[in-house]
Amino acid sequence: MPGRSPRWSLPRRARTAVASLAGLATVGTCLWAGLSGAPAAQAAGAVPTPDHVVVVVLENHAYSQIIGSSDAPYINSLKTGGAGLTASYGITHPSQPNYFALFSGSTQGITDDACYTPGFSSAANLATEVTAVGRTWASYNETLPSQGSTTCSSGKYARKHNPWFGFKNVPTSSAYTMSQFPTDYTKLPTVSFVTPNLCSDMHDCSVGTGDTWVKNNLGAYATWAKTHKSLLVVTFDEDNSLSGNKIATVLYGQQVKAGSSSATTYNHYNLLRTIEDMYGTTHAGQAANAADITGIWAS
């Protein structure tokens, strides 16, 4: 356990002034929320509040297969210019339960990669939480046949990597095709997930193929995020079943301290909790018991 900070106190007059200023700040915040009609939920102080967060989930590779690998030059460049988590872990095996865990703080009873029934759950999840506080949500899915399609598979598309279709409280229309990903990044929702198809996510194809896909499809957004108070998260669902489920997770954007890293042990629940706390939402499932990702944010 870390040592206690030394005790100190302000003089009485200074304490009174600080308390008065804090009271005025609280009144001002409440007044602004009331005038704008925006929810009063506030982001946690330990994490920033990006204008946009884009999370891309890749497949089935261990940390050591990605970080430091010559086959993944772009992802490693994001780590160099942003932050890497050196003790990031998936929740379980196989793939599908991890997607549900990241999106809703629970595997929702899913234990395999079978095609689940759409809308089987009404549990809280990231989409319902961010919309409840006046923010916006969407997913962008490569090779999805059409916006909102709940098909199990189509070519290299697989619904097992798209947990949002499992929730009746998430409109299917919020699932877009990758071709609908905005080129004007100011049009992005507050929080979005990107799901490459089975080749582009490294499941069926090489690390190099997936790395190039991230660069070609999200590289321009990453560059823009660096100067527009936004964030790109690149992570994996699980490892290759040979490394204790240790995965690569890289964060990049204006509010990330360049070249930073964290050796704290984190998993999908921590990433979910961090995004929730960026926008002051409630906490879904096991995210309620998880800590924020810290130590990588620019002051």
Question: Could you characterize the architecture of this molecule?
Answer:
The chain has helices at residues 12-36, 63-66, 73-81, 95-104, 126-132, 207-225, 268-278, and strands spanning 52-58, 83-89, 137-141, 153-154, 157-158, 175-177, 191-195, 230-236, 246-253, 260-262, 266-267. It is 28% helix and 17% strand. The protein has 299 residues and is an alpha/beta fold. The longest helix is centred in the first third of the chain and has 25 residues, at 12-36. The strands form two sheets. Strands 1, 2, 3, 6, 7, 8, 9, 10 and 11 form a nine-stranded mixed beta sheet that branches. It has a two-stranded antiparallel ribbon with strand order 4-5. Helix 3 runs parallel beside helix 6 and helix 4 (95-104) packs parallel to helix 7.
Which class in CATH terms? Alpha Beta
> Percent helix among the residues?
25-40%
Mean pLDDT: 89
Structural class: alpha/beta
The fraction of residues assigned to DSSP E strands is 15-25%
Count the E strands: 11
SS summary, helix count: 7
Keywords, separated by commas or semicolons:
299 residues, alpha/beta, Alkaline Phosphatase, subunit A, two-stranded antiparallel sheet, 11 strands, disordered N terminus
In short:
With 299 residues, the chain is of the alpha/beta class. The chain has helices at residues 12-36, 63-66, 73-81, 95-104, 126-132, 207-225, 268-278, and strands at 52-58, 83-89, 137-141, 153-154, 157-158, 175-177, 191-195, 230-236, 246-253, 260-262, 266-267.
